[in-house]
Write the structure tokens for this entry.
Amino acid sequence: MDNEVIQEIPKEEDKTTVSRMYTKSLSAFFGKHQALFDISLKIPKNKVLAIIGPSGCGKSTFLRSLNRMHEEVGGTIKGHVFLDGENIMEKDPVNLRRKVGMVFQKPNPFPTMSISENVVSGLKLNGTGNKKKLNEIAESCLKKAALWDEVKDHLNKPGNSISGGQQQRLCIARTLAVEPEVILMDEPASALDPISTAKIEELIFELKHKYTIVIVTHNMQQASRISDYTAFFYLGKLIELDKTTNIFTAPNLKQTEDYVTGRFG
Amino acid sequence: MISISIISLIIVIVPLILILYYTVSKGINYINWDFFTQMPKPVGEEGGGMANALVGTGILVGIGSALGIPIGVMAGIYLADKEKSWFASTVRFLTEVMNGIPSIVVGVVAYILIVIPMKRFSALAGGIALGILMIPLITRTTEEMIRLVPHSFREAGLGLGIPRWKTTIFIVLPAALKGIFTGILLSIARAAGETAPLLFTALGNRFWSVQLDQPIASMTVFIYDYAKAPFDDWNQQAWAASFVLIVLVLLLNILFRVVTRKRYAA
């Protein structure tokens, strides 16, 4: 019955972390296969929530169901996801995804667009035509994504002409341009070298002042470095959610401890 | 194993070389400026050209493209998007069947549907027959090329809150454009080289005509008529026309390659 209760963020936290997004007994299915079981958790505002767990534990499915991208891979969900008091399944997925943006595992800048066109693609294709404004937004988003200094001299080069790490920061800049409230990141650094990874982590650290971030990661060191809260998933179930320091130093459950210390998984 | 491959390769290449060798060696001597600018001369007179057939083929292929490209590309986009619906599967199957229909049967269909009601052979009927032939080719290549675009681009677009149709048209389609152009080129080359569906739709015309509701000349029917004629100089002109047709198809190929070599070509 524990799963019925929404896992609460520890009480001593200040009120700014009151979440605007939470799930209530969320289950996900691919055909008859159930990938998620009764997940209820709150996503803390302006914090980084890391989701860890072994492969196939439903981390990515959970992330995708937060902005209905699970529908693109043939998934269905039961239960509820709320954003600002509204059930996202009753909202237009297009509008939802402008509020809940997503960065994918593999950098995927659009090869047919230049670097600056990539950044503003979400705005441009949604009807913002003012060129001067778009250029300003491109610059500010590239600056926020800590990429401006590296690309400012060749903004007109194709989006895929830069290195993998730069491409991933370009994808983050592109997501920022739509001004989302929540950014979902699906192992954003797993395809990158250590230096690029460090840059992405620094960036996430900066971004949490303005955005709520949920990041799926395989890398437990990464989770402990960048996140404020950590959720441990196993076999489609939420095992434990706590402050990251607690999860990695003094988890409540033996299962969590075994995983974070590398004894299984 | 390798030797079998090499022998097969030679068997494939030899006819191609023979075709090129004969058309070039027999046709090139008869190519001159008049051949492109003059009308066919009456029987017995020397010289003359096939200006009307050149323009006629252009018009016929133009009508065919106007019909085949938009329908083919849009159908391809639809099939790529609705991968698994029963309707898409049915359309896909029918497209494949259509691709295998002999071109002369398409000519018969155009004859029954257009020539008989209009009570005359016409450029329109010929063009539509070519268009029907182009549709399945373009549909298939469009679908396949769009499928080759990594799913991650579509997801990226959707993840940015871009509506599905805009994602398809402005993100997925541009990445597939080069391949789609190649498919269109192939279908145009095929249409330009078709004879059978034109025989009883566009019919052919020894005189100058650019009217769509009148019979119109075409290079292939010109070749057909001149090759079986009992006059030596007509036969030579048929070789020359074959040579021009092959060069045209080659030029089309080069042109499309240049056009599609864009800055951001995927």
